[in-house]
Amino acid sequence: MNKNFKILSALALAGITAITSAFMFGCGKSKTSNKGNAIVRLNEVTRSVFYAPMYVAISQGFFEQNGIDIDLQTGEPD
């Protein structure tokens, strides 16, 4: 029984590793622009000082330096 337990444990560990790897690396391709950057759509409630760090990061080009194109939109009530 001890030998069977070791084999079962090894198989379970291999299965868990395979499933984890599939989730981490095989979840699909991200949408990219012509430059190869990922496109991220941000929808803010209103223009506000609350979002100041994001505005600074956009104006300083931090997102572009890291391969992210920002599509900034302001939400409106229905």
TrEMBL record:
A Pfam short name: NMT1
Swiss-Prot/TrEMBL keywords: Signal
Lineage: Bacteria, Bacillati, Bacillota, Clostridia, Eubacteriales
Record domain SsuA/THI5-like: where: 52-76
Record bears the keyword Signal: yes
Domain of life: Bacteria
InterPro entries: SsuA/THI5
Protein name in UniProt: SsuA/THI5-like domain-containing protein
Organism whose genome encodes this protein: Clostridium saccharobutylicum
